[in-house]
Design a protein that fits this description.
Layout lengths: L6 E5 L5 H11 L4 H6 L3 H10 L4 H11 L1 E7 L2 E12 L38 H8 L3 H11 L9 E9 L8 H16 L2 E6 L2 H9 L3 E2 L4 E2 L6 E7 L6
Parallel strand pairs: 4-5
Antiparallel strand pairs: 1-2, 2-3, 3-4, 5-8, 6-8, 7-8
Amino acid sequence: MQPTGTVTVRQARRQDAREVMLALTRACLDEPVLRWVIPDESARRARVAAWARWADEWVGGMLGSGVLLVAGRGSATVAGLSQWQLVTADPAPPAHTPAQPEPPAHQAPDHGPEQPGSAAPHAEDPALIELVYGEYAPRMALVNELIHPRRPRSRAYWHLQQMVVVPEQRGHGLGGAMLRHQLDQADAAGIGTYLEASSPRSQALYERHGFRPHGEPIRLPDDGPVLQPMWRAAPTGT
């Protein structure tokens, strides 16, 4: 049966934690980067299943430090999710970082101080990587090592950290709806948006929403996926 119904997009709530984590674990099993990090399917399923124990903490952290959108269609109220982080400018990039074309500067809006304990664990924290990925932690650390220097540093921007949709709901506009929702917010604030596309299909989706390649692709070793950094500037005059 084909999914039916109107696509809805909203910010996640704390009470959505279990449903959000269920959607995440179902949707990311065939994600190209995760497949490269954990090549063995049974090991990948076991690792992903274990994420459920951190559902409340992860959703609570995201709500305190970023934007977590959920998309639904018909009776599937949480069939996709996207995770966004506002990155502030760093005027001093590392000297070894290859020069990348920089978008126009904009001032990041002030969201006020974070509440104690509200911040999500840093995705590149070695202890967190070890906890989440176990014996595959070095492969995930390598991914971060390759992509982190390519991100804009001297400009504020919204970073789309990940966006996933459960398999049976793909191709029905959930990803595009989540993009439009957050890009409207970014445009209103005059802030650009950055991401790394992990497949030709996702790159095509992002290009339809105004993203363009931001430097050369990042190629993971051992015949891994090719990640394309992408940038979308805020409309002029915002």
